[in-house]
Amino acid sequence: MTTQTLTTAQALTKFLDNQYISFDGQEEKFVHGVATIFGHGIVLGLGQALDRDPGGLVYYQGKNEQGMAHMAAGYAKQNNRRKIIAVASSIGPGAANMVTAAACASVNNIPLLLLPGDTYATRQPDPVLQQLEQEHDDSITTNDAFRPVCKYWARINRPEQLMSAMIHAMRVLTDPAQTGAVCIALPQDVQGEAHNFPESFFARRMHRIDRPLPTGWALVEAIELIEAAKRPLIICGGGVRYSEAGEALTAFCETCKIPFAETQAGKSAAPASSAYNLGGIGVTGNSAANTLAKQADLVISIGSRLSDFTTSSKWLFNENCKFLNINLSKFHAQKLDAAYLIGDAKTTLCQLRASLEGYQAQWGEAIAQAKSNWKDEMQRLADYKYDEDFKTLVEAQNPASIEEFMRDLGGTLTQTEAICAIREHIAPDAIVVGASGSLPGDLQRMWETDAKDSYHMEYGYSTMGYEVAATLGCKLADPAKECYTMLGDGSFLMLHSELVTATQENKKINLLLFDNAGFGCINNLQMGSGVGNLGTEFRYRDATGLNGAFLNIDYAAMGEAMGAVGYRVKTKAELIAALKDSKLQSKCTIIDMKVLPKTMTDGYGGWWHCGLASVNASEVGAKAYESKEAELKKARQY
Questions:
Q1: 397 exposed, middle or buried (CB, 10 Å; 0-12, 13-18, 19+)?
Q2: How far apart are CA 421 and CA 423, in angstroms?
Q3: pLDDT greater than 80 at residue 616
Q4: What is the DSSP letter of 131?
């Protein structure tokens, strides 16, 4: 057997450099590079390997461990999970910073390879700098925190353990049904230890992503369910996007006259202009999708996790509605007591289309009418502005807040008119990224695009801080396109460090920052549920608490300090001018919009099960609890 003497870290980088993906006959390199922030627990092991012989791996210098992991997740998602950037960190706090990103990736089934440094396998210098000690178990380190949020976890205590661990890691990372975060913990002494690795370990490995087809009784049952349905409705989930099944979905729906609605992960898999595309569904869905969902007698979910936001906490569908789930994951396919097909979205849709010759749903004019009604509402939202007849879209509020906001920040821009202006004035194929706050709801309802995979929303974990870093990941994945993130002031304050990395890499990203002086959507939930107004607005402290004037932060100046071109916007006209000028820039841009609170979309036929207090001194809170109990009786229990 031919062997090669390498350190564990050298063997790891050489292995990563030889991993490939095959999908529909197209072969491409799987691991594009490695992002790290070097600390003592990684720089002399993995760092030495990357310095001396990186092969074809590109090195990226992160600024925050969580941020660079989100960048890698954004890169993988925008590449439809067929390319990754591995992420390495030092031991202790560097590793712990990545736990949030690991959970985010696992929830969304996005491949993310994490390589945190670890304490010494020999334990000779214990406690080493940054080591977390547990008196009851010497083997526990910070990296054990990754176990519940990863799809695969291993600690390499001997060099030869690397081989089986990395083969398992690749199995998980390249499996569409199981993929998520993978953690390979690297004790810092083992990183530098040598071993005679067999040459076969470094051979070019081709990981083939197949398109499995359902067969047998399950297929027969599915066809019978569809043929018996008069008003079926399809839910287009992220699996449609990753399967590249948008055209197949559109063709299926046109042939069978079945409307489809989009989840956050499924939006932009198929064109918004399709006569059968209803738009977003569920808690953050629009009136078209939710109206028809309540009338459906069969829901066909394709590649969706069927989360509470998609199903409106299992409340949205009538009690006689049946379910058929198409998914590569049996775990997700069996939800809602559904009949299910385990198969690839694209090939399964083509198979069903061929088997349903002559079948057509009986929606009549309902699809066109629902879409027309929503189009009228979209125009109202686009025209919604501050004037003498101004009223907020969200009613639950401190009556003085709007006047105080205008006094302290000066903005008169509404959130919905801003979104419509942005859609009109950026490129049709621009990539738009989001994750948290009220913006995901507005975008799922209002954002329309025919550009494939141009809507990039992380809403499985709704991670504040994902936005800026993931937008850089999108730009690395698709350098020719303009990449924008729409984010709130709260998310920007939480994590914006990778704006510096974007500047350093000469990769232009655009930040569209909606400053409503606080955590707006949580303030809506809080005040609408009778809690009051505690800690969800950004105000100075006065004698009564955090109830003073609003903070007026110059976010454009913060972006300028990190190398971006900044714009300060308080009106629609200023926003349009900034959007036009930003397209002429070669550097990153940040548009700081002072947006009136309570001017985001609200309602449209969804319901969300929230944990309201059953004993409440507030009249508003008591009514909210009574309403919740009444609506809960209409929802499915499992």
A1: middle
A2: 5
A3: no
A4: P
